[in-house]
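Before the break, one more example. Copy the sequence into your notebook; we will annotate it together after we see the structure.
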Amino acid sequence: MKGPALGAVVVALILGGCATTTAATGPAPGPATAFNPTDVAWLQLVVPMTANALAAARLAPERAGSAAVRSAATAVVAPSERLLERLEAVRDRAGLPATDVHSGHRMPGMITPADLAALRTDGAGGFDRRLIALLRAHAAQLVVLARGEQASGADPETRALAADVSAEGARETELLPN
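Here is what the structure looks like once it is written out:
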């Protein structure tokens, strides 16, 4: 299975699995909220995805060998910081813990601590290739996950934020060098 079909299955598994995990291990949104399990799962995934991608992009000024990679990564940082602030605010409004429920999971688009460690030890050429591949995968998965939130989420602010996250993922894909 490839392409959109695989993306749809991944979203369904991630969002379906997270909803169950959230109900069992994390506080449920309060009764006055409009958050459904898709909103919760999306926030619990996209917040750490964005934080980890931001950490990777911040390594570029000192580690990148190419000016194009340095420039592209730098162009990712400020918009990602703004999105992360908004994502964290909505997560907090939902009453969700700040912990990463996906820590240790290897998922599409998720830059892991092992990836960050490799970036810190790669030479300039290896760093450039790895960073661009990681940021491209991250940006593409943001778009896929945002579509799932927009289609199935209940909270209007979260769905609107998903539209902004999708637009940022598309922008990042365009600006990253091949």
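The first helix runs from residue 3 to 25. The CA atoms of residues 14 and 107 lie 9 Å apart. Try to locate both features in your own notes.
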